Structure formats: structure tokens, C-alpha cells
Amino acid sequence: MTEVSVNGVCKSYGKTKALDNIGFETEKGEIFGIIGPDGAGKTTLFRIMTTLILADSGSVAVAGYDVVKDFSEIRKIIGYMPGRFSLYKDLSVEENLSFFASVFGTTIQENYHLVEDIYRQLEPFRKRRADALSGGMKQKLALCCAMIHKPRVLFLDEPTTGVDPVSRKEFWNMLARLKSQGVTIIVSTPYMDEASLCDRIALVMNGRFLKIETPENMLRQYDKTLFSVRSANNASLLRQLRKMPEIKSCYPFGETLHAVAGKGFDIASLPARLVSDGEIRIDRINPTIEDCFMELNEK
Ligand code: ADP
Entry's Gene3D superfamilies (predicted)? Predict the structure, then answer.
């Protein structure tokens, strides 16, 4: 069953095309990831889907309701966690949650079972002011506040940005539990490693979806020869590799370089063609989602 349907959505700010013909559909109980760098258009899309701003053209329906005509219905059945801190800093953990519950005409007690797993971790700090919580704890509280009225669809805009790796992992475990209860989740992230935790992902760049696929298919469909190259002087290697006609692209990737060649490229020939003072390490590697992103972006 289609839960969220986005068709031909465009939105510009002056000359900036924040969204350029975006379209996709999500199924009930799906975790749909929107993955892309800063400025790609993620927040603009979330604001349109959550009825906070209007698109210039195109349409969006959530649970069959139209974002323009039926905005008040949609607001009752969705949870939204905006990218920036959305809590009341001066209120305690408990007061924040009770406030969000009361806005939707419910109470913490009534829907406690929905947030129990997460809120149990926050309970020792329930009298603490929200702005005195750690980054991970703030995000967990924000998720509780977005959940307390039992939404059908959850919109989470970069919920793990700036959160430590352990809390990030815990956060994604929570999303998996919500999914198992039938909640549909649309979540954005700049972290490519979080892509594999989604059922399907959309890679977004400059207001356009480059591709929508399951993470597994995204990796399977990568059809280039990819290898990592590393030496004491990666900058020099990068320059040399970029000059080679058979190397389609080469980019820094953590401590190494990733170089892309056409299928069948013989990497055994490479060491002799590269100049370096020290040892050069070359390995054939499998792509990550980030490599798929680079590849699609090149196209
Ligand atoms: P992301 O969430 O992926 O970082 P945004 O949706 O925030 O991307 O931004 C997409 C583009 O639209 C950026 O170029 C941004 O500068 C521009 N933009 C977003 N909101 C506004 C606004 N209110 N006024 C002007 N430009 C905006």
C-alpha cells in the first residue's frame, strides 16, 4: 500500500533550484532513505512533505491526503523531527514529552508503549533540561516527541547528524523497531554508511534524485572496476591517476584514493606506471554507496 506519494515536485528560491522534478512513492512500513550532501534539497523536500511550505509545482500525498488541500489531516497523522534541535531547551525531558503529547490531545501514559524502549534510557535524566543532554540523548528525546501521538508516517530530517557512532547505531535500532510496528519512515542522512539500514534509498544531488533503489541493488548495479590506491603522497598519485586516459575518475576516500576504470581494466599494469618515493598499495575493492553516488554524479 502506498503511504507517501511525491510527483514532479519543484521548488526554487530565486535562481536556486532547491528541488527539480522529484518523484517517488513509499510503501507502508518502509524505511526510505534520502541520502545526499549539504544543500542537496533534503530539508526543502521534508518541509513540503510535512505541509510547512508549498511546492512551486507537483503534488504530494501522505496516506492519501493532499499536502495542500488536507494539510490539517496530515499534521495529525505524521511525526516530524526537523534537522535542527526541535525541543524546548528550557523544559525538562519529561516536560518536553508531555508538551508534545498534549498538543496532539494525548498523554504520555496513553502512548507510553510506543516510546518505552527509547524513553527508558532517558528516564534517569527526566528532570534534566533538554539543552543539558548529550547530542545522542537529545535526538532520542526528539524521536520520542515525534512519536508520542502515534503517527502513521515519521519524517526524520538528518536525525543522526553530529551524533556519536554508538548513539547513531542505537538510533537506527529504534527505527527498525518502529518499522516492525508498521510505521512508515522517511529519513535523510548525509552518512552514506547508514544507507544499508534503509529498505530503499534515493541519492539526491542539486535538487535531483540520481537514483532510487535498494542498497543491495545499488551496489550490484555498479559496473566499473574500482580500486583503492595509497602511498605516503596521495596528492601526487591523485594527479597522476587523473591524467591516465583509462581512469574514468579518481577521488580521495578517507586515507586512500578510489580510482574508477572501465570494466576489465588490468590493474596489474598500474604500479609500473605510477611514480612514487615510497611503497604504493593498490587493491581491487567492492564499491560502497558513496562510490555509487560518485559514479552517478559523474554521469
Ligand atoms: P539540505 O537539507 O540537503 O542541506 P536544503 O533543502 O536545506 O538542502 O537546501 C537546498 C538548496 O536550497 C540550497 O542551495 C539552499 O541554500 C537553498 N535554500 C533552502 N532554503 C532556502 C531559503 N529559505 N531561502 C533561500 N534558499 C534556500
Answer: P-loop containing nucleotide triphosphate hydrolases
Ligand 1 touching residue 266 (CB < 6 A): no
Rg (CA), the chain: 22
Which of 62, 29, 45 has the alpha carbon at shortest distance from 185? Answer: 29
9 lines ligand 1 (CB under 6 A): no
Residue 9 Cα to ligand 1 midpoint, Å, equals 15
22 lines ligand 1 (CB under 6 A): no
Check: CB of residue 31 under 8 Å from CB of residue 37: no
Task: For the beta carbon of residue 125, count every other beta carbon within 10 angstroms.
Answer: 17
Q: What is the pLDDT of residues 50-59, one digit of tens each?
A: 999 999 999 9
> How many other C-beta atoms lie within 10 A of the C-beta of residue 220?
12
Which among 13, 53, 210, 293 is the best mutation to test ligand 1's pocket, defined by most ligand atoms within 8 Å of the CB? 13
Q: Which residues contact 48 (CB under 8 A, 6 or more apart)?
A: 9, 11, 19, 54, 55, 60, 67
Of the candidates 63, 67, 83, 89, which has an alpha carbon nearest to the alpha carbon of residue 9? Answer: 67
Q: How far apart are CA 175 and CA 213, in angstroms?
A: 19
Q: What is the pLDDT of residues 18-42, one digit of tens each?
A: 999 999 999 999 999 999 989 999 9
Q: Is the CB of 107 under 6 A from ligand 1?
A: no
What's the CA angle centered on 242, arms 218 and 202, to 5 degrees? 20
Other CB atoms within 10 A of residue 182 CB: 10
Q: What is the DSSP string of 193-212?
A: GGGGGSSEEEEEETTEEEEE
